[in-house]
């Protein structure tokens, strides 16, 4: 199993718009494409409270490439993204890391 950690740093004041997009559109599209989320988090204490951090679970790099590619080119995703950004850009920066569990990790 491979986990992907993605951190979205929002344009100031736009975190609520990002959360709404995930709740109303993104998660449904992920389900359509077989993308499994492994947790979502906002920052309580840290460098910025304008961040959304989440984890995705992948069977392999090939699994990620196939499913993520189909999601990113899905016309419904492109429409939802455009509609959610009608009032301006939401995300200023995205950081992504692909992680593998250690032998002693409670998550496998």
UniProtKB/TrEMBL annotation:
It comes from the Bacteria. Residues 3-105 form the NIPSNAP domain. InterPro entries: Dimeric_a/b-barrel (IPR011008), NIPSNAP (IPR012577). It holds the Pfam family NIPSNAP. This is NIPSNAP family protein. It comes from Bradyrhizobium rifense.
């Amino acid at each position: 199993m491979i986990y992907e950690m993605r951190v979205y740093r929002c344009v100031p004041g736009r975190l609520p718009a990002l959360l709404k997009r995930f709740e109303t559109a993104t998660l449904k599209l992920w389900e359509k494409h077989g993308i499994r989320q492994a947790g979502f988090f906002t920052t309580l204490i840290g460098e910025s409270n304008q961040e959304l951090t989440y984890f995705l679970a992948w069977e392999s790099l090939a699994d990620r490439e196939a499913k993520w590619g189909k999601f990113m080119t899905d016309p419904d995703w492109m429409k939802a993204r455009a509609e959610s950004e009608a009032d301006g850009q939401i995300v200023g920066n995205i950081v992504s890391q692909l992680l593998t569990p250690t032998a002693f990790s409670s998550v496998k």
